[in-house]
Write a structure and sequence with these properties.
450 residues; mainly alpha; 16 helices; 0% strand; globular
């Protein structure tokens, strides 16, 4: 059975679990840190949008390259797919290395711009400086995951990420408890960051074995040169716009997080930032389903577009849209109903529990539109039409989304709740525009198999 003939569920369920594990790692880091200090956990957690900005840029380029490879595979051009894979792997390694260097030198500036101070700021600086050298491994992890999924071997991604999770938990436990003579300085932020970086490296080794033995990929220097001249223009055409929108989105999240920090300072309320961080961690449960189904749909759409089966591609996208939006809503409601119990996983502070619970109910309004956005945007990128969601998405979130967020928070003084509902409004605006773009059908002429 070819990839394009597989069902959405068979492709997506390993991806859902895989992304779930990926989402669980930051939660585990925050949990281990919260046992030492809630302030340190909040400081590191506040950085997640910043770190996410870097990773989303790398991931977007990797997904763009994987979509090109998928179109070649769907169009029965395996040699072109092989060259594409080599180009994407080498390019991601260079990009990850460059971003790690930038992150190292920009850390003090990032923490200052976030408005962090005291113990949260100290924890944030330690964490960023420690994981910066490992960013290249995270870049390769995302790239190899995308390429393995492109060939339909999503179950192998699941196994590799299970290994990552086990390694991360084991190392965190060893470091935090000081077993085997672990020095005192590693029994905190440094230990958590080192555990994260090592788990990324081990995951890359596992995925590379899958790429070599199951994808039968052979990296050749001449393929890098060939890909540079023949495929780099297409990769940049799709990859640059594909990176713009998620990077802009993550920067928007950084801005919103900075507003949470400002709100906490202005009101003298130390519960606001931890409530945002901890509620945001559990809100990711719904996002996991959306990302998994959206990624499965992206693989199918790319293969179908490569074979010029546009009606089937349209059907697959709508199938994923319905499943993703409805499941995200159900999960968000469940998380909100159990919010107080979930948040007590991190803290027993009644103010954090109360505000965090309210934010999770606001998340019920956000998740269906966020799910729609993920699925439709992924489908547009898979077909090669990545410019529209990038351009409109960026303009929309910094005008309509930002305006609505500031109005709800400060205009009618909804505070932290207004900030969360503002994020929901941004997802609503962009999902409507992207769906309209898909319905008009211009994506049918944007593929590499023209």
């Amino acid at each position: 059975m070819t990839v394009k003939d597989k069902s959405l569920i068979s492709l997506s369920w390993p991806l859902v679990v895989t992304f779930g594990i990926g989402m669980a790692l930051p939660m585990l880091d925050s949990w281990f840190l919260s046992k030492r200090s809630v302030e340190a956990a909040a400081g590191v957690g506040a950085l997640m949008p910043v770190i996410g900005t870097l990773f989303m840029a790398i991931h977007a380029f990797a997904q763009a390259g994987a979509s090109i490879a998928s179109q070649f595979l769907g169009g029965d051009k395996p040699r072109h797919a092989q060259v594409t894979q080599t180009l994407v792997i080498s390019g991601s390694a260079v990009l990850g290395l460059a971003m790690g260097v930038i992150l190292w030198f920009a850390t003090p500036t990032i923490v200052t711009l976030m408005g962090l101070s005291g113990e949260p700021a100290d924890a944030a600086i330690k964490f960023l400086h420690t994981i910066a050298p490992a960013v290249m491994f995270r870049a390769l992890q995302g790239t190899l995951t995308s390429l393995v999924a492109t060939h339909g071997y999503t179950i192998w991604n699941l196994f590799a990420n299970i290994i990552t999770l086990i390694i991360n938990i084991t190392l965190n436990y060893i470091f935090m408890e000081g077993y085997f003579g672990v020095p005192a300085f590693m029994q905190g932020v440094y230990g958590v960051a080192i555990a994260t970086g090592l788990s990324w490296a081990i995951s890359v080794i596992a995925l590379w074995i899958v790429v070599i033995y199951h994808l039968e990929h052979k990296t050749k220097v001449r393929d890098i040169k060939k890909g540079y001249y023949l495929l780099l223009p297409e990769w940049l055409r799709i990859g640059i716009p594909a990176a713009v929108e998620p990077v802009s989105f993550q920067l928007f999240q950084v801005f919103v997080m900075a507003m949470f920090v400002k709100l906490g300072h202005d009101l003298g309320d130390t519960s606001i930032v931890p409530a945002r961080v901890f509620a945001g961690a559990f809100a990711m449960f719904a996002v996991v389903l959306s990302v998994g189904l959206g990624s499965g749909s992206q693989i199918l759409v790319a293969h179908l577009v490569g074979n010029k089966e546009f009606d089937k591609a349209n059907k697959r996208m709508h199938q994923s849209l319905i499943w993703s939006s409805s499941s995200a809503f159900v999960v968000a409601v469940f998380v909100a109903l159990t919010g107080q119990h979930l948040l007590s996983f991190y803290t027993t502070d009644p103010n954090i529990l109360h505000l965090g619970g309210l934010l999770l109910w606001c998340d019920v309004a956000l998740q269906p539109f966020k799910a729609s956005n993920i699925v439709i945007t992924n489908a547009l990128r898979a077909s090669g039409d990545s410019a529209f969601p990038a351009v409109f998405g960026t303009i929309s979130m910094w005008t309509l989304g930002l305006g609505t967020t500031l109005f709800l928070c400060f205009g009618i003084e909804l505070g932290a709740i207004g900030l969360w509902l503002g994020m929901a409004s941004d997802e609503f605006y962009r999902s409507i525009a992207n769906y309209t773009r898909w319905r008009r059908g211009k994506w049918k002429s944007k593929g590499v198999m023209r």
